[in-house]
């Protein structure tokens, strides 16, 4: 899309398809560089992060008197897991960059005031994403404890490292991405692609999908884990709907004001002007 230097000559951000693709490539390249740099930094944090991620599993086994440990089944498995955890750290650390690049690709299609308001709401995207990851971290010990309690008496939990870490990282990413849903709803509304009334019209389906997602993403067999994810998502959804409705009213008022101004100009025009 349009570069910043072309804003004055092209305020609406109109571009040909080839230029759109070039802009998308540039944004994707910048995001990739940020993730790579964050991943390199993640290598230095791998050991303490790995210890923190596996601690809930070890503690769950020790509290029940069962033998619980992490098993690296292959020669290259420790290195593979280091790559995965470091990449997750890179995604988390670089989230301000790739979220901004994603939004910068959309904003040229918005008007100046809408871009300013949207940028303010986008500033909440980073803490929302990190907050979702942190919430997943808070429920992880309880989820691991509940799931490992199904182990029969006398059994042991020798958990494969690749399986356990994939489970934990997917959980955290699912929570983080889920918390970004309100940002995308507001973004679509500001772009004129989705109205607040449309969202309200299908609120039953939306609530059902949120609860279904919470049930699938929350690993715990208890309803509490699902509630931890569904409750903040529903609250954020309600906030997003409110912002969309307010923006819809402002858009209607602006449109009415423009139409009134056009009619006023037409009424005050002289017969010569009309000719």
UniProtKB/TrEMBL annotation:
The similarity annotation says:
Belongs to the TatC family.
Q: What is this protein called?
A: Sec-independent protein translocase protein TatC
One molecular function GO term is:
proton motive force dependent protein transmembrane transporter activity
Organism listed in the record = Arthrobacter yangruifuii
Tell whether Transit peptide is among the UniProt keywords: no
GO biological process, alphabetically ordered = intracellular protein transmembrane transport; protein transport by the Tat complex
- Bilayer topology: Multi-pass membrane protein
What does the subunit comment say? The Tat system comprises two distinct complexes: a TatABC complex, containing multiple copies of TatA, TatB and TatC subunits, and a separate TatA complex, containing only TatA subunits. Substrates initially bind to the TatABC complex, which probably triggers association of the separate TatA complex to form the active translocon.
Q: Does the keyword Membrane apply?
A: yes
This protein's UniProt keywords = Cell membrane, Membrane, Protein transport, Translocation, Transmembrane, Transmembrane helix, Transport
Q: Which Pfam families match?
A: TatC
Q: Which GO terms describe its cellular component?
A: TAT protein transport complex
């Amino acid at each position: 899309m349009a570069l910043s230097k072309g804003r004055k000559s092209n305020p609406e951000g109109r571009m040909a398809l080839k230029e759109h693709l070039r802009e998308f490539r540039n944004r994707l390249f910048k995001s990739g560089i940020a993730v790579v740099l964050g991943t390199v930094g993640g290598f230095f944090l791998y050991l303490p992060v790995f210890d923190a991620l596996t601690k809930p599993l070890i503690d769950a086994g020790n509290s029940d008197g069962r033998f619980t440990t992490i098993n690296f089944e292959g020669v290259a498995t420790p290195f593979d897991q280091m790559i995965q955890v470091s990449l997750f750290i890179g995604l988390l650390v670089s989230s301000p960059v790739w979220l901004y690049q994603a939004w910068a690709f959309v904003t040229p299609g918005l008007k100046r005031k809408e871009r300013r308001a949207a940028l303010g709401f986008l500033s909440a995207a980073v803490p929302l994403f990190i907050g979702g990851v942190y919430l997943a971290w808070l429920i992880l010990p309880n989820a691991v404890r509940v799931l490992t309690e199904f182990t029969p008496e006398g059994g042991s939990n020798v958990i494969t490292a690749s399986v356990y870490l994939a489970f934990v990282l997917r959980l955290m990413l699912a929570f983080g991405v889920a918390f970004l849903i309100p940002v995308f709803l507001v973004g679509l509304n500001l772009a004129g692609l989705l109205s607040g009334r449309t969202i309200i019209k299908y609120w039953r389906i939306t609530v059902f999908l949120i609860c279904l997602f919470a049930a699938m993403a929350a690993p715990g067999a208890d309803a509490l884990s699902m509630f931890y994810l569904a409750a903040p998502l529903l609250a954020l959804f309600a906030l997003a709907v409110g912002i969309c409705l307010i923006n819809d009213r402002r858009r209607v008022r602006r449109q009415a004001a423009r139409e009134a101004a056009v009619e006023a100009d037409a009424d005050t025009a002289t017969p010569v002007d009309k000719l």
